[in-house]
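Morning, I've got a small favour to ask if you have a moment. I'm working through a protein record and want to make sense of it properly. The fold is given in discrete form, as structure tokens running alongside the sequence. Can you walk me through what the tokens say about the fold? Thanks so much in advance, here it is:
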Amino acid sequence: MQKDKIKRDIFDLFNKVFGHSFTRKGHHLYKSIFDTDSRFEKELISKTLMYLNSGATVLDIGANIGRWAISISKKTGPQGTIHAFEPNKETFDFLTNRTKSFKNVIAHNVALSSGEREEVEFLIQKGISCPPNAAIAETASQIRNKEDFTIIKVKSKSIDGFLEANNIKTLDFIKIDVEGHELEVMRGFKKGLKRFKPILGIEILRDKWKNNNPSNSDVAQLILKEGYIMGQFNELTIFYEFDEAKFQQDFQNFIFIPKPNK
């Protein structure tokens, strides 16, 4: 955490001295050279891979520069398929370059939401190349100071529309990291959720929790009503059905597994 703060402070100083354009180029170079994912993200990916089998079909929604897509690609093998979705064109170009040698990764330059729209406002942090906290503006309540962000226009589709258009026959796992837009993503997946019942790994931002409880969030309630159980990815090494006694406030990543048929 201290290392991340030092890095942020350095790029903030660059922003003030050299401006956003130069800083973005410097940050892009930094990302190209160094592995910048955090210790917790590495642990999170490792825990997620336990739920994936060879040959699985996966949607990586909010793929950013491909850390998840690459790890999942290695686990599922050549018979698997990973559809990686990244709406920010700069980040998408980085993603396609990093994953070009992974033949089972297919990248899509589009946002996933509740439906298809030609223009959706998308917030991009100034001075940061391939920002991990880029977000669709209409649901980004966690971003307080929007003066630090640039607005671009992106296209959106629903998961159901994508599955139908691409004739997807199987779907095993979906990872969703969309900075507050997770409810709208799931609203666009009503048909597919009932049909495929995939395992879901979702970041639910604290802003979306109700009564300080993520299981009361709108997106969690939508999924739980479809016959799922909810667990939290945190410092524990095992999955458990959501339990107040085991819940840790610092972690916003959750897994949803279909209840077994009796």
